[in-house]
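Homework help board

Subject: predicted structure for assignment chain

Our instructor gave us this sequence and asked us to write out the predicted structure in token form, then describe one feature. I got the tokens but I'm not sure how to describe them. Can anyone check?
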Amino acid sequence: MLVYRVLGPGGSGSTTNVVAGIERAVLDGAQIMNLSLGNSINDPDWVTSIALDRAMAEGVVAVTSNGNSGPDNWTVGSPGTSRKAISVGATALPQDFFASSIYTSEGVAYDSFDIMGYTDSDDLMALDGNEYEFVYAGLKGVADFAGLDLTGKIALIQRGTYTFLDKAANAAAAGAVGAIIFNNAAGEIGSTVGGMVIPTFKLSGEDGGKMYYELAAGNNKVIFTIDYLGCMESVADFSSRGPVVSTWMIKPDVCAPGVDIISTVPTHNPANPWGYAIYQGTSMSSPHVAGAAALLVEAHPNWGVNDIKAALMNTAENLVDPYTGAPYPHNTQGAGSIRVDKAIEAKTLVAPGSHSFGVFSKPKGSEVKLQRFSIKNLTNKPKVYSVSVKFPGIDKGIKVITLNRLIVGPRRSMQIPMVLQVKASALTPGYYEGEVLIRSGHEETRVPTILFVGEPDYPLLGGAGVLDLGDEYLIELYLPGGADALFLDLYTLDFQPVAELIEDYDVPAGYSEYYWNKTAPGQELLPGTYYMVAFIYKGERAEGWVVDEVVVP
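My token output:
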């Protein structure tokens, strides 16, 4: 095993060092590399993304994190935007999922109500459909129970002072069959906590206030509805989503476990050097895929990097959103969650493992694009394949012409041409998902595919940086599609406009640099800290972005 430190304390470092590490690993003969790192710039031509493309070209299986900026689309960052490397999203291991709600009186809704934690799912389901008296118990320390009868009741608890686990344990000790904890400030409680001794739920500060006032109005009964949705693997909300700007590629390529992963950590204690902690992130899921790639290399030493990637994508499990019952979008899960045993035993490889047909925007008539897929038969016998393409819900505007049936000889591969005709005027502008299905007997390979009709809705500002040079600031902006007009303005920290600083027109796509000398035309700026805000206009779209804080001396 080769280990290269490319980031400094706290996990930050320079792009130069990351690229140097990639190059060194290739030169040192690495077969597989893992990069549990990334930035927020959605750019396939960022230098780290290109470096991984070239590592794959040199025969090194490059695996990288997709990013932790989800759940919105377009949040994938470099080098997860690489055209060739395997970009990895994060999933949570199979767990029970429930849909839950409460009722206290007509017209009162608790939209933030959700399960915080429990120990026994039977205790949770026992609440379903039943009515319970609920009692307010303050912060839920032991002293808060004095004079309260909670036997068979629900404790309504405010967040603060004590841990969530202690609050639930104290409620259980007083006889409560459940607890509802509401935030001590506006907004929701994000935490979920395993091992709650009794079923415990959470409310936002606003909804907690509603429930407290219900109690004051004499509505002291609550009815629970708990529906069991099943036990399944799910995509983490934080996992970054694609697509990639300009290539319009689906990202991630695959997913792997990245929630509640036990990892080693430095203790900085020579007497006790072995430390462990539970972490989450695509930095946890990426090594799972690198490890799976190592098993594939061992099992199939003659496979190339594209074979390894195809095997992992072709055999991945298509994941279903537990709350909707529908498969996650392609740009959420990629081809799905890896199944290394199936990848090792694959009899067919289809590459690429996912595909974007790009953008169709011709105002009249049909626009035609060609793509070729490679089918490789890994067995010692000829195989007959059927090919079909589906864009669910689309009955006009998209036509696919391809071979419906083909025979591939043993240990041979064949290219499948696929012609896509899209009549943009017959479709609503937006993003469309489809699948290429390749079948041979009971074997089926699913290749996710996407296309866009009209201008994609990517963020107009793809990344920004501000560098204080002393007498002036350097402002660097990444505009994926350019801009018709760009304005850089100064705002107070409570978002009151102060001054217009820079304006530019017909800005080309890519990276632009601007210099600001810390003054404003025609006015004097008071010393202090301000927000630099960018306003970007392109076609009918307009967006405002806080670039960074700047200081006027």
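Reply (TA_rk): Your tokens look well-formed. For the description, you could write something like this. The chain has a mean pLDDT of 94. That's the kind of observation they're looking for.
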